[in-house]
Each structure stands twice: as C-alpha cells, then as structure tokens.
Amino acid sequence: MTRQRELILGILSQSDRHLTADEIFFLAKLKMPTIAMATVYNNLNAMNEAGVIHRIRVDGGADRFSAVSEPHDHLLCDECGKLTDIRLPKLKVELEKQIHSPVDSYDLVIHTLCPACRRKK
Amino acid sequence: MTRQRELILGILSQSDRHLTADEIFFLAKLKMPTIAMATVYNNLNAMNEAGVIHRIRVDGGADRFSAVSEPHDHLLCDECGKLTDIRLPKLKVELEKQIHSPVDSYDLVIHTLCPACRRKK
DNA sequence: GAAAGAAATAGAATAATTCTAAAATCATTA
DNA sequence: TAATGATTTTAGAATTATTCTATTTCTTTC
Questions:
Q1: pLDDT tens digits, B6-19
Q2: What tens digit of pLDDT does each residue of B98-113 get?
Q3: How many Å lie between the alpha carbon of A111 and the closest alpha carbon of chain B?
Q4: What span, in angstroms and rounded, lies between the C-alpha atoms of B33 and B29?
Q5: CATH class of the domain defined by B73-120
Q6: Dihedrals φ, ψ of A43, to 5°?
C-alpha cells in the first residue's frame, strides 16, 4: 500500500460517482502533482484484480471505477447518464436457478430513467 | 440499406459467435475488398442505434456485435473467454419488481465456466 | 548506508474507435 | 437522360483510452 495507492483509493471512497481513470488522475494531481497516469492505471488494475475496487464498462465512454467492494448492480439513466449503485442480493441465486449452474459473478447495468429525469417527462 | 450494410448484417446473422469490428472487417473484405473500416463502424453504429444489432462490451477487449435482435443475456466463460447467448425471459419483470420502476432495457453478463471448461477442472 | 526488490514516473507505443474531406453512389426531379 | 442534392463510402489522419518500457525513486533489509 503505497502513498499513491492510498490516495487513489481515498478518492474513490470519497466519491459518490463512478470515476473514469482520467478524472481520478486529475483529482490525484491536485494532491500529488507528480503522479503519473500509468500509476493510476497500475493501481486501478491491481486493486480491481484484488477485488478492492470495481471496474465497470458503459457504452460510449471510458471505463469507470468505484470503491464499493460488495457486489452490486447498476442503474444507468439513459437521459442524463447518471450511474447509481443498487443492491439486488437475491439476484445471484435467482440466476443460478435459471441457468442451472453456479454463477461466479455477473455484471448488470439496468437502463432506466432516474427519478429526476422521470419527473421532467 | 446499402450493399455494404447488407453484407455486414449478413456476416453477423450467419455467425454464431459475437464478432469484433475487426473480425467483421476481415470477413467483409473477403467479399468486398474495397470496403473500409470506417464503413464497418458507421454501419455497426447505425444498426446498433436502430436496434437491428446489439453491441456488447466485455472486460479487456474490443466491443462485440451480434445480429440477434431479441433481447437476451450473456454467459461469459472466464476460462476460455467464450461468450454465449442465453434467454432469461422472466428476468426483466423480476428486475422491475425489485427496483420498483420500469426497466427500459438491461445488459447482463454472467461469469461462469462453460460446460467444456467445467469438465476439465 | 549499500544492495535488492518493488513501485512510480515520463513518455512512447498500441488498440479501438471516430473524424474529416474527397470521391462515389443513389434517388429525384427537370 | 442530365443535373441536383443527399447520403454513403473510402482512405487515412486524429483521437481516446490504455498499456508498455526503460529509467528513476522509494522501501526494506542486511
């Protein structure tokens, strides 16, 4: 656990949004101006592999990262692009029942309108 | 519907795998050597927007495309990387029940071992 | 405090995708 | 059929996200 890794993890933990590597790099630079982009990626990859953070790919953009370590799912608002975490604890078992095989893990992004955007319609 | 678009759609329809833009480009070139990569992307994007084909993003690699128009889900084998379609018709309703909101659509990739790889373990 | 190993840095390299400008194709109307 | 305008394709440059590489800086241990 280097200072850089600590910084990056801190940034992710404190953010309620899911950040791109670029955003993390920018925020990290504010606190540690010498940090390099490769360091950000190195650490994001390492922590992702270790399961400490989570990488999520969304259509039309860079990968996002979040510090939430518990498995969880995602709501994506197609109107404003906001990405929210949601926990569907029963889903894994449900999926295993449906495919008749053990599920290692899964990635789920649900497209829906966020409450704010729904109200505007 | 240009000749190029027809060709690309044909390639996708006839493939049982999910192809990358690169693979589609290669296959298209065999039939129409003058076709350009940009044309492949133009058409893939257009057809994806129109809902005729489906783009799917998988960790660590290029986007894949498939012609299957019905909504469906994906099984990804973490061992050999094989990506298979699966239909879970009840899931959408199940999700709507759980999030208490209408679900526009959703993307699901289930990580599991394919039968072949499971046998080898 | 020197040596060894691990991680960080800077910048080049790669891969996937998009953009741009010119040429080709197509459909429509004169 | 010729002219017109719109759309699409083409080729290659440009961009974006990410990884790689070689060198430097930190840590840790002796």
A1: 999 999 999 988 99
A2: 999 999 889 899 989 8
A3: 5
A4: 4
A5: alpha beta
A6: -70, -40
